[in-house]
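User: Quick sanity check before I run a bigger batch. Here is a single chain. Can you write out its predicted 3D structure?
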Amino acid sequence: MILTTTPNIEGHKIVDYLGIVSGISSNIKTSFSFKTEKNLKLFSEAIDKAKEEAFQKLKVNAVQLQANAIVGISVDMETESSAYFFISVTGTAVKVE
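Assistant: Done. Predicted structure follows.
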């Protein structure tokens, strides 16, 4: 599976646009009430885990459409009350040759 933020893939021809796909991480409660180096590291690790989860869901959704690539990927992080966050990843599933 080829993943890119660009609208095309150098060296490949897009032969079919299959639709918009997304992957959203689960809501994650953060419990970091003050900023210490340890808490910032834990928070960073939690974000990385959520981002990976969102990308895996994105790829699963693209495979269901029989895509072999996703173009135009954008990543968005939302927070709510500074206690929850989730990450959404969106792109266009395509077939390339």
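Helices lie at 37-64.

User: Great, the batch can go ahead then.
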